[in-house]
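Dear colleagues,

As part of the handover before I leave the project, I'm documenting each prediction I ran so the next person doesn't have to rerun anything. This entry is a single chain, and its sequence is reproduced below.
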Amino acid sequence: MRKGAVLTLTLDSDRPVILPKSYNHVLQGFFYANIDRLLSEFLHQSGFIYEGRKFKLFTFSKIGYSSLEKRGDILKLIPPLVIHFASPFLKLTESLLKEVLKKQSLKLGSNYVFLSQIHAREYNPQKEVSVRCLSPITVYRTPAGSKRFEYFTPYQEDFYKLLKSNLLKKYHLVYGKKYEGGIEISPVKIENSYRKKVVFKGTLVEAWEGTYNIRTGEDMMCIALYAGLGVKNSAGFGMVEPC
């Protein structure tokens, strides 16, 4: 069975790191800049195609920090910074690991940082796992005749239906076959305060954090853990870890 990997990067600097409040696009650019050029171009331009839709098959967390100051839409983060990155596509995590290890400095937005630690790990997937969000989950539908997204919340049944449908597509891309088992996803802890609004490249994205229970086969559990839940995973949404 093919598995993925999770990388945990600790970035440091001798000065605060200045980022916009909605920094997902900055982090996405950081990862594209620190993997093999041909692989980066493939993911950025096309990625993996399923039924006409593009999948990048990676996800990443929000940034962890020592302390934070907010100045309007600008964040002043005090290092060290901790970022998690995951993919079921091992060539991708291996490329990121290789690239960041050979560089003396890394550019994060307009900031220069250096890698102080990196840790690679694999999960030992179980058939039932409770997970917590490292980045918020988003799922939506575009109603017929409309250009606006209809976002769903974890209080709605369609939220979980769309999560399952999305996992089935990722499974087919990774394993090359249809998934024949069951998938059950249910909320463990959700609160209204877990609703997040993130601007990504000019689009306002509604997403939800929280704790959820997943019951499925071990190979499908790998997809949830390494590829993320919901959509826009490569934009920094839907990364989860066992809790």
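Helices lie at 24-33, 37-45, 90-102, 157-175, 218-227. The mean pLDDT is 95.

All the best with the project,
I.
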